[in-house]
Amino acid sequence: MSDILVETKELCEYFQVKKGFLSSEKQTLKAVDRVSVTISKGETLGLVGESGCGKTTFGKTILYLNRPTSGQVLYDGTDIGTLSKEDLRKLRLRMQIVYQDPYGSLNTRMSVGDILQEPMVYHRLCTKKESHEKVRELLEQVGLRTFHESRYPHEFSGGQRQRIAIARALAVDPEFIVCDEPVSALDVSVQSQVLNLLSELKEKRGLTYLFISHDLSVVRHISDRIGVMYLGQMVETAPEEELFRSRLHPYTKALFDAMPVPKSGVRLKRTTLQGDLPSPINPPSGCHFRTRCPYCTEKCSQVQPVLKDVGNGHFVACHLFDK
Amino acid sequence: MDKDILLNVKELHTGFESPKGFIPAVTGVSFDIARGESVALVGESGCGKSVTAMSVMQLLSVPPARIEAEEIKYNGQDLMKFSAGKMREIRGNEISMIFQEPMTSLNPILKIGFQIAESLRIHRGLNKKEAWDEAVNMLRKVGIPDPEKRVNEYPHQLSGGMRQRVMIAIALSCRPNLLIADEPTTALDVTIQAQILELIADLQEETGMSLLLITHNMGIVAQMADRVMVMYAGQIVESTDVDTIFDNPAHPYTIGLLESIPSADEKVKTLNIIEGTVPSPMFYPKGCRFAPRCPYADEKCAAVQPSLSNIGNGHLCRCHYPKNTKGGGQL
Amino acid sequence: MEDITNSNHPISIDEEEKFFSSNVESFWRMVWNRFKKHKLAIAGLIVLGIMIVICFLAPVIAPFPYEELHLSDVPDGMPLRPGGKYILGTDQLGRDFFTRCLYGGRISLTVGIVSTMIALAIGIPLGCIAGYYGGAADMIIMRVVEFFACVPTFPLLLTLNAVLDNPSIYLVMAIIGIFGWGGVCRQVRAQFLTLKNQEFVQAAEALGYKDRKVIFKHILPNALTPVIIIATMSVAGGILMESSLSYLGLGVQEPIPSWGAMLKAGKSFLRDRPHLCMIPGILILVVSLALNFIGDGLRDALDPRNTRN
To answer: Which chains form contacts with chain C, at 3 or more CB pairs under 8 Å?
Structure first.
């Protein structure tokens, strides 16, 4: 095993939700439910799942932007939960996040130069004088022009804003970046530009990514290893080639089948997956997927499956693979 | 042309007045749709694909919009000459439309049964009781479980996928000849998207209606369409059957677009990209609109706008050097 | 050939720069452009500007000192009519009415502005804390706001006056301010509640900034829009409040003039010298209207829903 940079142990993030408008009764929404993963240095872990599966919450909790309800996040061996506020702020320089919405993630009252310069100067990574040079370097690295420095975010297109957001994350020279659906809001031709930029930066700077997306082909393109989430739980993780060679969990299979492929001669497939995503507030007992699973057995409604090693670094949480 | 043409649009120009000047959104779009055919209109945001559909349906408010067309012939009648009232009749009975965001298209304070029944009463002249029963029927048809119960629910009680099914039920309740679906699944998850696409395809097979599918997703195009029209910067740049688009695309934009999609089949290190960004409608280049981003562009491309011409077998392409004919093109 | 191909690519730096410069508009420039379209607001701004300049230049403009008596000019104690030596006539003590209008405006405007400043100085920080941290802090601050909203200001001022006999003008400002911060605080808090979950705020937290920086540099500038509007209106509110107090004889004390006090003094001569009441009354009306129009204009200009077109 290579060096582990980030590790979560039984990470849980629960939210209290009011039952109704007037009711004071509260229900628990298990956005992230006992997720344990490891991310090695220099690796890209892709996280796929449908809306409401908790992938975004997981990305924020791993950075302690939300405090986890229980469980641990180990960063480079230290438990983030035990850090003081001051130490956590220092640690933040090593881990950054890029958001989905290129409109909401930039402060519209600041110029691009200020957005990029602020973190460097604030953390005394360089003097104000040097920062000017560094801002220009950053802009060039993410494929923007140096004259963009004095512009405001609303003057840019979605793809360019996403580049600014990436540059901001890079300003503190981090080693780990959570990419939360960074290309979902972009057009196809711009999406590929940003994906290439992310790969290029990773290579140049030796970054580690947690890449969250609902788009399997995007995740496959960028990831070394892929995790599939369903209703707050990890149902399958495997190295990328392994997962695309043999997908085991029925949900992963359904996800692959449902994905439209841009190729001639692929007419509509009959979908195997029926029904809607159940509400994460009251997920089905046992295996959360059983209500939509074509292979559901009695055991599935009683016992919750856990991730099991099936060889080749492939883990799956499904009773079909019980020995 | 001996096919049975249902909708024929010729030289459609639509633009919007704005404080900063006139914005041409659609410039010179011509196409036709045959009875029972599925046509996909693909393009990136801002290329004018939705505006094209809205212009055909006359759903844009004039002004600020300005719609001009040589003709928009539906079933032999020119829609451009229709009064607002006549157009409303066409919209309900002959052509229906479903949109991307089903929540905003439904009235939040009315039961979904009522919303379907209302459209049935207006357009098919059913009485209250018949309309209600038919609404239940429609819900069953679009695959909503427990339709007798669901018919009494409000839009917010339904999931996104279910709402889109309700929208489809309303759209189809009057048995239209043409369904225009504007990004019908963009707001939905992939597994739900597959269900909705399947539903649309099934219903189309059953009723024999035509489909104009507007999307940015080439994967959906491959699954659903018979014929594909690719739009870029307010123009159709390529139009051909679905197999040719994927196997033998001719326009550099289509080629670039297809190559820039990450493939689920094989992994490449770097994706092919189209450099630059879509030009703003206020600053369209004077020659070919794709020339600034085109790797094959030369001085002719910068100066002369190519026309949409037939490069064989009804394959239309707006390019001086369509790639598979290589007529004097370099590279 | 290669050369031509390249030069034919109009996305050269120049082109893009040109496109950008045609588009350059900082936030405040955009606001100003939209504000300009609001005719009444512009009129309000001009009127208010003139008023402020004239009133604060009173020592230069005014023909007499404001407290100088000319008892010999008003032998029967009947204020003089406008005209002659005194442009707007005099009051019953022979003090030049024009001079007193200028100085009165100075006081009235100062009371409005200072009391608003006090309200902002209390309301903004507390609103920030309540909105950003939530929990117990929010709970306590909001109860205090509600407490102040429940206390009837006017009777309280009357009582204070009875107790304090001749309250100073500063006390009046302070009291108006202290009772006016609740609205500001609520508004700031509401803005913070929506803004703190936005991604650019989270991104600032992820960059390891201290709370103070996140609050003041990243959230507050985006939360100020409604506060600016409220502040404009509250200046008008302050002026009216001072006028009412002075009219009741509880505000500014003789011989210092204020528009409210002048209104009160003029009421004894309402039948014979109506201008003594009308002029201060009109001034109060004009200034508070101007401020309200400006507030309206700002509301339209700052409304984010207008931003996209």
So the answer is: A, B
The predicted structure's pLDDT at residue A229: 92
pLDDT band at B326 (very low <50, low <70, confident <90, very high): very low
- CATH fold group of domain A4-94+175-260+268-321: Rossmann fold (3.40.50)
Using an 8 Å Cβ cutoff, are C97 and C86 in contact?
yes
Question: Do B119 and B174 contact (CB within 8 A), yes or no?
Answer: yes
A positions 89-148 inside 8 Å of B (CB): none
Q: Tell me whether strands A308-309 and A315-316 are parallel, antiparallel or unpaired.
A: antiparallel
Q: Is A157 left (phi over 0), alpha (psi -120 to 50) or beta?
A: beta
**Which amino acid does the sequence have at C57?**
L
At position A107, the amino acid (one-letter code) is N
**Residue B2 sits at the chain C interface (C-beta within 8 Å):** no
Q: Who contacts A218 (Cβ-Cβ below 8 Å, separation ≥6)? A: A183, A191, A195, B262
Select the residue from C1, C3, C5 to test the B interface by mutation, using most B Cβ atoms within 10 A: C5
What pLDDT shows up at residue A47? Answer: 93
According to DSSP, the residues that pair with C246 across neighbouring strands are none
Give the CB-side neighbour count of residue C106, counting CA atoms within 13 A.
Answer: 18
Does the beta-carbon distance from B293 to C11 stay under 8 Å?
Answer: yes
Please name the CATH architecture into which domain C107-288 falls.
Orthogonal Bundle (1.10)
Instruction: Return d(Cα B238, Cα B314) in angstroms, integer.
Output: 11
What angle (nearest 5°) sits at the alpha carbon of residue A228, between those of residues A224 and A229? 140
How much is the pLDDT for C26?
Answer: 65
Between CA A194 and CA A197 the distance in angstroms is 5
Q: Do B302 and C8 touch (CB under 8 A)?
A: yes
Report, as an integer, the average pLDDT of C195-216.
87
All residues at 6 or more sequence positions from A46 whose CB lies less than 8 Å from its CB, including other chains? A211, A212, A213, A219, A220, A222, A223, A225, A226, A227, A240
Show me where the domains of chain C are located.
Answer: 107-288
Which own/partner pairs from B113-121 qualify as long-range (CB within 8 Å, at least 24 positions apart)?
B113/B139, B113/B150, B113/B151, B113/B152, B115/B166, B115/B170, B116/B151, B116/B166, B116/B169, B116/B170, B116/B173, B119/B92, B119/B170, B119/B173, B119/B174, B120/B173, B120/B174
Please give the pLDDT value at position C166. 67
Q: Which of C207, C213, C221 sits opposite A172 (nearest CB)?
A: C207
Task: Please indicate if any CB of chain C lies within 8 Å of the CB of A103.
Answer: no
Residues of chain A with CATH 3.40.50.300: 4-94+175-260+268-321
For the ranges A51-60, A115-124, B28-37, C9-18, the lowest mean pLDDT is seen at C9-18
pLDDT at B331 over 60: no
Three-class HEC string of C206-250: HCCCCHHHHHHHHHHHHHHHHHHHHHHHHHHHHHHHHHHHHHCCC
- pLDDT 10s digits, A33-66: 888 999 999 899 999 988 778 888 899 999 988 8
pLDDT(B133) > 90: no
Using the beta-carbon criterion (under 8 Å), do B330 and C1 form an inter-chain contact? yes
For chain C positions 8-37, those within 8 Å of chain B (CB to CB) are: 8-11, 19
Under 8 Å CB pairs connecting chains A and B tally to 134
